[in-house]
Amino acid sequence: MPISRALSLLIILLVAAVLPAQKAGLSERALDVGGTEREYLLRIPRGFKKSDKKRAPLVVMLHGRTSNGKAAASSYYGWSKLADKEGFVAVFPTALGTPTSWQAAFTGKPTVDTKFLAKLIDTIVAELSLDKDRVFMTGHSSGGFMSYSFAAMHADKVAAIGPVAGLNIGRTKPKMPVSVISFHGIADNVVAYDKKNGKKAKWRGMPSALESASAFAKHNGLGALPERTELQGGRVLLDTWANDKSSVRVELYSLEGWGHGWPRSRKVHATQMIWKFFEEHARPPLDHPQKKGPEKKGTEKKGPGKKGNQKRRAKV
Known about the structure:
Shape: globular
Strand content: 15-25%
Strand order of the largest sheet: 1-2-4-3-5-6-7-10-9-8-11
Distance between the termini: 71 Å
C-alpha cells in the first residue's frame, strides 16, 4: 500500500475515534474554547440520520442565571421530548461563573460566551450535517438576554430566536434579519417587564419587553409600531411586527399575572409555540434580501384564545 494512501487511512481512523458517536439520546459533551473546556448536553432525536437528504434543524437552549445545561434539558422546559417528536437536534450549553450567568455582548465586543456559542453551533452543524438555515436559539432569563445579544452579534448563525423573560439591552445591530418570538410576564418581579409594572423587580431600569422586541423589528425593516391583539379576554397581549415585503416576523406575548417562570399552561406553552414559530421562520434565501417597506397593518394572528380577540395599535 502506498505511504500516502496508508497515511490517509490512518487519519480517517483517528478522526473517527476522536469524534463522539452519533447515537440518539442525551449525551454529555465538552468543547475547548480558548483553552477553557466548556460543557454542554446534546440531544440527538430518535431516527436521526446524518445522511438524510433533508438536513435537520438545530435548537440551542440557554438556561437562566444560577442554572445549567442539565436543567435546560429537563422536562420543565420540554425541549428534549419535543426534539424526539419533531426530529430536530437540541443542544443545552452551560454558562460559566458562580453563580452561572451568560456573558452577553452588551457593549458590542465578543465575550467568552459569544465565542463559545458561535464555535458550538459551527461544530455541531458540521459534525451532524445540519441545516445552517434552520439554526435557532431560545433562552430563559439570562439565557433570554443572551439570545437577543447573540442574534445581534451573530445574525449569520441564527435564523430566529425565542427569548423568555429576557431583554435586549445591547448596542449591536444585527447585520441580517432575525425573526423573534418573545414571552414576558407582566408581573415579573425578577426582570422588569417595563417601568410601570417592574418597580419592585430585582432587575429594572432597562428597556421594556416591548422596546426590546421593537428594536429588532426596526432592524428587520418591519416598522416601529406593532399590531396588538388581545387574547384570552385581554390576559394575553400579542404584539406583532410584520409586512408583506418580508418573511421575517417579530412577536411579543405579554402575559397578565405571570411572573418570571417559563410559560407552560395549556393555552400558552412557550416551548411548543416557540418551536412552531421556528418551523415557519427558517433563514430567507440569501438571493432574496429583505426589503424595507412602508409600515403596514398586519393581519390577525391566530393564537391561543382567538375567540373574541381585539386588535389595536400598541405604543412603543
